[in-house]
Protein backbone atom coordinates (compact mmCIF):
# COMPACT_ATOMS: atom_id res chain seq x y z
CA UNK A 1 0.00 0.00 0.00
CA UNK A 2 2.77 2.38 0.84
CA UNK A 3 4.40 1.65 -2.50
CA UNK A 4 1.16 2.35 -4.38
CA UNK A 5 0.59 5.59 -2.48
CA UNK A 6 4.11 6.72 -3.20
CA UNK A 7 3.64 5.86 -6.86
CA UNK A 8 0.40 7.91 -7.13
CA UNK A 9 2.01 10.90 -5.42
CA UNK A 10 4.94 10.72 -7.80
CA UNK A 11 2.63 10.65 -10.84
CA UNK A 12 0.62 13.65 -9.62
CA UNK A 13 3.79 15.59 -8.92
CA UNK A 14 5.03 14.84 -12.43
CA UNK A 15 1.76 16.00 -13.99
CA UNK A 16 1.79 19.20 -12.01
CA UNK A 17 5.40 19.84 -12.98
CA UNK A 18 4.65 19.21 -16.65
CA UNK A 19 1.70 21.62 -16.66
CA UNK A 20 -0.98 19.03 -17.29
CA UNK A 21 -2.45 19.54 -13.84
CA UNK A 22 -2.78 23.19 -12.83
CA UNK A 23 -4.17 24.71 -9.68
CA UNK A 24 -5.72 28.10 -10.52
CA UNK A 25 -7.06 30.81 -8.25
CA UNK A 26 -8.54 34.29 -8.61
CA UNK A 27 -7.65 37.21 -6.37
CA UNK A 28 -10.19 39.92 -5.52
CA UNK A 29 -9.44 43.37 -4.07
CA UNK A 30 -11.96 45.63 -2.29
CA UNK A 31 -11.80 48.76 -0.16
CA UNK A 32 -12.70 46.95 3.08
CA UNK A 33 -14.52 49.54 5.22
CA UNK A 34 -16.28 52.60 3.88
CA UNK A 35 -18.81 55.26 4.86
CA UNK A 36 -21.62 56.85 2.88
CA UNK A 37 -23.87 59.76 3.79
CA UNK A 38 -27.55 58.94 3.91
CA UNK A 39 -29.25 59.80 0.60
CA UNK A 40 -26.06 59.89 -1.49
CA UNK A 41 -24.66 57.42 -4.00
CA UNK A 42 -22.01 54.94 -2.88
CA UNK A 43 -19.55 53.23 -5.20
CA UNK A 44 -18.53 49.74 -4.09
CA UNK A 45 -15.11 49.13 -5.65
CA UNK A 46 -14.08 45.59 -6.53
CA UNK A 47 -11.22 44.58 -8.82
CA UNK A 48 -9.84 41.16 -9.58
CA UNK A 49 -6.79 39.41 -11.00
CA UNK A 50 -7.00 36.10 -12.81
CA UNK A 51 -4.21 33.75 -13.88
CA UNK A 52 -6.22 32.87 -17.01
CA UNK A 53 -6.96 35.16 -19.96
CA UNK A 54 -10.14 37.16 -19.55
CA UNK A 55 -13.05 35.63 -21.44
CA UNK A 56 -15.86 38.22 -21.37
CA UNK A 57 -18.49 35.69 -22.40
CA UNK A 58 -17.56 33.34 -19.53
CA UNK A 59 -16.85 35.77 -16.67
CA UNK A 60 -19.51 35.86 -13.94
CA UNK A 61 -19.77 38.45 -11.16
CA UNK A 62 -22.04 38.19 -8.14
CA UNK A 63 -22.75 40.68 -5.36
CA UNK A 64 -24.61 39.66 -2.17
CA UNK A 65 -25.59 41.56 0.96
CA UNK A 66 -25.41 40.42 4.56
CA UNK A 67 -27.13 42.82 7.01
CA UNK A 68 -25.66 43.85 10.33
CA UNK A 69 -28.59 42.56 12.33
CA UNK A 70 -30.44 39.32 12.00
CA UNK A 71 -31.55 38.50 8.51
CA UNK A 72 -30.71 36.43 5.50
CA UNK A 73 -28.28 37.21 2.73
CA UNK A 74 -29.80 38.94 -0.26
CA UNK A 75 -28.71 39.06 -3.88
CA UNK A 76 -27.66 42.53 -4.90
CA UNK A 77 -26.35 42.18 -8.45
CA UNK A 78 -25.33 39.59 -11.05
CA UNK A 79 -23.31 39.93 -14.26
CA UNK A 80 -22.84 37.43 -17.10
CA UNK A 81 -22.21 38.97 -20.51
CA UNK A 82 -24.51 41.79 -19.39
CA UNK A 83 -25.61 43.29 -16.05
CA UNK A 84 -28.64 41.89 -14.20
CA UNK A 85 -29.77 44.30 -11.47
CA UNK A 86 -32.25 42.99 -8.87
CA UNK A 87 -35.93 43.04 -9.77
CA UNK A 88 -37.16 42.76 -6.19
CA UNK A 89 -36.02 43.36 -2.64
CA UNK A 90 -34.61 46.45 -0.93
CA UNK A 91 -32.10 47.05 -3.75
CA UNK A 92 -34.64 47.13 -6.55
CA UNK A 93 -33.84 50.00 -8.96
CA UNK A 94 -30.96 51.06 -6.72
CA UNK A 95 -27.99 49.23 -8.30
CA UNK A 96 -25.96 50.48 -11.28
CA UNK A 97 -23.18 48.61 -13.08
CA UNK A 98 -19.93 50.61 -12.89
CA UNK A 99 -17.36 47.97 -13.81
CA UNK A 100 -15.43 46.80 -16.84
CA UNK A 101 -14.78 43.10 -17.30
CA UNK A 102 -11.84 43.54 -19.66
CA UNK A 103 -10.41 46.10 -17.26
CA UNK A 104 -10.80 43.59 -14.40
CA UNK A 105 -13.24 45.87 -12.63
CA UNK A 106 -16.40 44.52 -10.98
CA UNK A 107 -17.57 47.68 -9.19
CA UNK A 108 -21.21 48.69 -8.67
CA UNK A 109 -22.99 51.84 -7.46
CA UNK A 110 -25.78 51.95 -4.90
CA UNK A 111 -28.05 54.93 -5.49
CA UNK A 112 -29.38 56.95 -2.56
CA UNK A 113 -28.20 54.72 0.24
CA UNK A 114 -30.41 54.27 3.32
CA UNK A 115 -29.67 53.24 6.89
CA UNK A 116 -31.10 49.79 6.09
CA UNK A 117 -28.15 49.31 3.73
CA UNK A 118 -25.70 49.02 6.64
CA UNK A 119 -23.95 45.68 6.37
CA UNK A 120 -21.39 43.62 4.46
CA UNK A 121 -21.31 43.39 0.68
CA UNK A 122 -19.62 40.35 -0.84
CA UNK A 123 -18.04 40.43 -4.32
CA UNK A 124 -17.32 37.12 -6.09
CA UNK A 125 -15.78 36.75 -9.56
CA UNK A 126 -15.26 33.60 -11.69
CA UNK A 127 -13.25 33.40 -14.89
CA UNK A 128 -13.29 29.76 -16.03
CA UNK A 129 -11.15 27.78 -15.65
CA UNK A 130 -10.10 30.18 -12.89
CA UNK A 131 -13.12 29.69 -10.63
CA UNK A 132 -11.56 29.13 -7.22
CA UNK A 133 -10.26 31.80 -4.92
CA UNK A 134 -11.16 34.24 -2.21
CA UNK A 135 -14.09 36.64 -2.16
CA UNK A 136 -14.01 40.35 -1.51
CA UNK A 137 -15.93 42.02 1.30
CA UNK A 138 -16.93 45.65 1.91
CA UNK A 139 -18.41 46.77 5.22
CA UNK A 140 -20.65 49.75 4.51
CA UNK A 141 -21.74 52.16 7.22
CA UNK A 142 -24.43 54.71 6.36
CA UNK A 143 -24.10 57.91 8.42
CA UNK A 144 -25.99 61.18 8.78
CA UNK A 145 -22.99 63.39 7.97
CA UNK A 146 -19.51 62.71 6.73
CA UNK A 147 -16.88 61.93 9.33
CA UNK A 148 -14.16 64.39 10.24
CA UNK A 149 -11.54 62.47 8.29
CA UNK A 150 -13.61 62.57 5.11
CA UNK A 151 -14.38 66.26 5.57
CA UNK A 152 -10.70 66.92 6.15
CA UNK A 153 -9.74 65.06 3.01
CA UNK A 154 -12.38 66.94 1.05
CA UNK A 155 -11.19 70.29 2.42
CA UNK A 156 -7.59 69.43 1.63
CA UNK A 157 -8.52 68.44 -1.91
CA UNK A 158 -10.47 71.66 -2.49
CA UNK A 159 -7.79 73.80 -0.84
CA UNK A 160 -5.04 72.11 -2.85
CA UNK A 161 -6.91 72.74 -6.08
CA UNK A 162 -7.48 76.40 -5.25
CA UNK A 163 -3.84 76.85 -4.21
CA UNK A 164 -2.65 75.29 -7.45
CA UNK A 165 -4.87 77.65 -9.48
CA UNK A 166 -3.66 80.71 -7.52
CA UNK A 167 0.00 79.73 -7.96
CA UNK A 168 -0.56 79.22 -11.68
CA UNK A 169 -2.19 82.66 -12.01
CA UNK A 170 0.67 84.30 -10.09
CA UNK A 171 3.21 82.66 -12.38
CA UNK A 172 1.33 83.85 -15.47
CA UNK A 173 1.03 87.43 -14.16
CA UNK A 174 4.71 87.52 -13.17
CA UNK A 175 5.76 86.30 -16.61
CA UNK A 176 3.62 88.93 -18.32
CA UNK A 177 5.02 91.74 -16.15
CA UNK A 178 8.58 90.60 -16.75
CA UNK A 179 7.95 90.46 -20.50
CA UNK A 180 6.45 93.97 -20.53
CA UNK A 181 9.34 95.34 -18.48
CA UNK A 182 11.82 93.68 -20.82
CA UNK A 183 10.11 95.12 -23.89
CA UNK A 184 10.14 98.61 -22.36
CA UNK A 185 13.86 98.34 -21.62
CA UNK A 186 14.59 97.23 -25.18
CA UNK A 187 12.51 100.08 -26.63
CA UNK A 188 14.28 102.58 -24.38
CA UNK A 189 17.70 101.33 -25.45
CA UNK A 190 16.73 101.66 -29.13
CA UNK A 191 15.34 105.21 -28.82
CA UNK A 192 18.10 106.61 -26.61
CA UNK A 193 20.73 107.14 -29.40
CA UNK A 194 18.18 108.75 -31.71
CA UNK A 195 17.25 111.53 -29.31
CA UNK A 196 19.44 114.65 -29.15
CA UNK A 197 19.31 116.92 -26.19
CA UNK A 198 18.86 120.52 -27.33
CA UNK A 199 19.51 123.62 -25.33
CA UNK A 200 16.34 125.74 -25.51
CA UNK A 201 18.42 128.91 -25.12
CA UNK A 202 20.73 128.13 -28.04
CA UNK A 203 19.94 129.15 -31.58
CA UNK A 204 21.25 127.73 -34.77
CA UNK A 205 23.38 130.07 -36.94
CA UNK A 206 20.91 129.73 -39.80
CA UNK A 207 18.15 131.32 -37.77
CA UNK A 208 20.32 133.90 -36.02
CA UNK A 209 19.14 137.51 -36.35
CA UNK A 210 21.76 140.25 -36.12
CA UNK A 211 21.13 142.84 -33.47
CA UNK A 212 22.09 146.46 -33.83
CA UNK A 213 22.47 148.69 -30.85
CA UNK A 214 21.98 152.37 -31.31
CA UNK A 215 23.82 154.83 -29.23
CA UNK A 216 21.33 156.52 -27.09
CA UNK A 217 21.86 158.85 -24.23
CA UNK A 218 20.20 158.35 -20.93
CA UNK A 219 19.33 161.29 -18.77
CA UNK A 220 19.20 161.02 -15.02
CA UNK A 221 17.04 163.47 -13.15
CA UNK A 222 18.99 164.62 -10.16
CA UNK A 223 15.87 165.65 -8.32
CA UNK A 224 14.26 162.22 -7.90
CA UNK A 225 16.93 159.90 -9.31
CA UNK A 226 14.75 158.60 -12.14
CA UNK A 227 16.20 157.59 -15.49
CA UNK A 228 14.62 158.97 -18.61
CA UNK A 229 15.32 158.14 -22.22
CA UNK A 230 15.65 160.92 -24.77
CA UNK A 231 12.67 161.46 -26.95
CA UNK A 232 12.63 160.66 -30.61
CA UNK A 233 12.66 164.36 -31.44
CA UNK A 234 15.87 164.98 -29.50
CA UNK A 235 17.49 162.04 -31.25
CA UNK A 236 16.51 163.42 -34.63
CA UNK A 237 17.76 166.94 -33.80
CA UNK A 238 21.05 165.58 -32.57
CA UNK A 239 21.43 163.57 -35.74
CA UNK A 240 20.67 166.69 -37.83
CA UNK A 241 23.26 168.68 -35.93
CA UNK A 242 25.82 166.00 -36.53
CA UNK A 243 25.05 166.00 -40.23
CA UNK A 244 25.27 169.81 -40.47
CA UNK A 245 28.58 169.83 -38.68
CA UNK A 246 29.86 167.24 -41.09
CA UNK A 247 28.67 169.37 -44.00
CA UNK A 248 30.40 172.46 -42.61
CA UNK A 249 33.61 170.62 -42.16
CA UNK A 250 33.34 169.33 -45.65
CA UNK A 251 32.71 172.80 -47.05
CA UNK A 252 35.67 174.25 -45.23
CA UNK A 253 37.89 171.57 -46.50
CA UNK A 254 36.72 172.23 -50.02
CA UNK A 255 37.40 175.94 -49.65
CA UNK A 256 40.81 175.31 -48.27
CA UNK A 257 41.57 173.11 -51.19
CA UNK A 258 40.42 175.70 -53.65
CA UNK A 259 42.52 178.47 -52.03
From TrEMBL:
Regions of compositional bias (Acidic residues) in chain numbering: 237-249
Region (Disordered): 183-202, 222-259
Keywords: Disulfide bond, Glycoprotein, Immunoglobulin domain, Membrane, Signal, Transmembrane, Transmembrane helix
Pfam families: V-set (PF07686)
Coiled coil: none
Keyword Signal attached: yes
Protein name: Myelin protein zero-like protein 2
The organism of origin for this protein: Parambassis ranga
Primary gene name: LOC114444577
Amino acid sequence: MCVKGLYVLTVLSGLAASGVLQVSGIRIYTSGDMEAVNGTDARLRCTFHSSSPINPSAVTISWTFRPLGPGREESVFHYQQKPYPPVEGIFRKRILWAGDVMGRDASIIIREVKFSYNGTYICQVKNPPDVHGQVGEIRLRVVTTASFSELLLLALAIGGGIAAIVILLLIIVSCRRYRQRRERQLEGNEEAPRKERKDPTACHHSCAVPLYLSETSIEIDSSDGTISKPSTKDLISSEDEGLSSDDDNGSNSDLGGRV
